[in-house]
Records
---
Amino acid sequence: MSEQTFFLETQKQFREIAKILDMESEIIQELESPQRLIKFQIPVLMDNKKVKIFLGFRSQHNNALGPYKGGIRFHPQVSENEVKALSILMTWKCALAGLPFGGGKGGIIVDPRKLSRGELERLSKGYVQGIFPCIGPDIDVPAPDVNTNAQIMAWMTNEYSKLKGKDSPAAFTGKPLNLWGLKGREEATGYGGVVILEKLREIFGFKPKETTLAIQGFGNVGFNFARFAFQEGYKIIATSEQGGGIYVSEGLNPEQTLRCREEKGKIARCYCVGSVCDVNFGKQITNEQLLEMKVDILVPAAVEDVITKENASKIKAKYIIEMANNPVTSEADAILGNKGVISVPDILSNAGGVVASYFEWLQSKEKKRWQKKKVLNKLSKTLEKVFDEVWDLSKKESINLRKAAYLIAIDRVAKAIKKS
Ligand code: NAD
């Protein structure tokens, strides 16, 4: 999907919900586009002593519920429409999770792999210099996203504190522990997904040992989802990365698979059952095969738009837990719905990350360290409550979980606008 289509789809989705909520036209006008879009040049002194200009963006969609919140991505395909659409989705995600945050998203058009470490540091600091007056702990709190990490957040936080003239760790989240980063943030999104999986188990009564899972993506989210699901006893029979995946009918061991992947450089051929990796256990598969596999639960945890109108009718899973952002297109969603597939939408399934970011923001403001146990406990409780709200509304109104989640989220934002 082009970034223009993505933005238009996001607006269309919002207008459909606004219609059901009988929303006033001035609120529709406010919410269908970001309140502010900042587009700015970032001059960076390159290692060859020449200055190169990069283009940065920050989209601030809505702050009726609190400071804007959302990641900053470094990618050659970053665009105005992409950050606008993603900032809208962040508003709904934060509202659904009951967080005192609005939605934002930012990025720089760059291929970070082509920069030296020094250039990357100057670019990260240059981004903060460019938007300094528009961000801050109570204004807009960025976080890592595609190709950005704790180190980049550390450079950005330090630059923000320098410009502000005071230590300001709550200006960013996703930071290293020594800058008030949060224990448990790393695994929070995958962990949150397994909290959702356990809620489905409670409702549908499936037994983990007899329940098969296929997980697309073995990065931060996919691996941590696999790790916690494995701990609960689920049988993960397939996983993949960009170059392809593996099928292990006995069920694979995620930790062992990760170690094997680190050794071999790719996941294909890492057939790890228990603590042993052996080629006899499994076979190589493509990402397409993984998605269409006969499993109970499918977990897209890699990239957007992987389930489309082309392959939706071939999906055999009974449940989908959307861990990636936007893995199911709206056309595919309708096809899956007709087939009776239960899909838990991304703004609910992967909200563990932003909930943990909220904990980090609190911790950074209060300068009181949270233990990992407290983080994961509070995360579970938050997501369980949100899941129940979405589930109950979907039953009451006979609508799917996606529609229920959007109705709750958008209604909250609209009410906050009316109050302000
Ligand atoms: P990551 O970069 O750590 O891992 C991505 C994984 O997807 C890798 O295994 C990669 O090989 C694989 N991949 C990349 N392109 C692929 C393709 N075309 N087909 C199949 N696999 C492919 O990223 P992540 O942090 O795990 O994020 C995964 C998804 O979850 C993204 O959509 C992201 O926006 C979303 N998400 C992440 C977080 C978080 O806290 N990290 C929070 C919310 C949502």
---
Amino acid sequence: MSKLPLVFVTRQIPETGIAYLSGRARIEVWEHKEPPPYQELVAKTQNSDGLLCLLTDRIDRQLIESSPHLKVISQMAVGYDNIDIVAATEKKIPVGNTPGVLTEATADLTWALLLAAARRIPEAQKYVKDGLWKTWEPTLLLGADLTEATLGIVGLGRIGQAVARRAVGFNMRVLYYGRTRKPEIENSLGVEFRQFDSLLAESDFVTVHAPLTSETKFMFSYKQFQRMKETSIFINTSRGLLVDSEALYRALCERQIAYAALDVTVPEPLTSQSKLLSLPNLIIVPHIGSASYKTRSKMALMAAVNLIAGLNQERLPNCVNPDVYN
Ligand code: NAP
Ligand code: GLV
């Protein structure tokens, strides 16, 4: 019997993924809480036939070109901006990702942040825990209404649409900006297209769901925050680099915008010295958009299925560089 292929899994993942790999591959798992250091990642990948990686791993040209046995890269995430897709495609290595299964969980987290920012939940909780709650007060911790407010969605893909669907329940007007108009979705969800600047100027809430690319990097800098309403609330659950953090800090300090909530930052993780953490009008959570039990189990299984398909020279069910099959 021929030896099973060797796969390197860059962190402990939910059992669904490991169970699927078992018996189909020899598995080496990086057992530490933190990601493998880059040189370690290169060394492990050099000996592997398959790589199951996470968004915290830098999968660059050097790593790809120095891995002679590598047949497939499978990322347990939908975003893949950490992977040099051009280099992988040149080497005919298919790259897999996990779209769809995390859409609803990430939309839920977006709404959790939006509501928490609108109603200032972290400030309110701190107020209670600090022992300041003495009575009901007519003007204590006033926030923003959602009903009949305008929600601006940047990037109306899978997650953007799931966010829009949830806005119906709040009776909000929904605008979107994206690189392509989507007339069918405009009709089915009742959303309206706006140019980027108009969306910023008209929205009470702006939420970002575009991937990180050379076009979207720093899409939000000081100028964009200046265009937004002084009462507006900004949510980012896409990637930290879509936003110029320094500009966001300044906009929040100067009250160019009222509040922000981030699931993604630059850098990740933020250090405890980050000045962003000193802002009372900024909520930050540690990149937990897809972090529900069911969703992470589905992601791990999907990543494992992609990985084994690649090792068997079969088409990946979810492949981000289908050009490798041409
Ligand atoms: P998707 O379905 O591909 O949607 C992305 C949308 O962004 C598409 O509609 C796309 O337009 C649009 N877009 C692309 N480039 C753009 C640009 N330059 N300007 C404006 N819009 C642009 O992806 P998804 O599944 O919704 O995921 C979106 C992103 O969310 C991922 O790439 C990832 O970075 C992030 N994410 C984060 C978490 C988390 O834990 N916080 C979880 C999941 C995903 P087209 O329709 O023209 O392609
Ligand atoms: C998470 O950020 C993902 O891209 O899946």
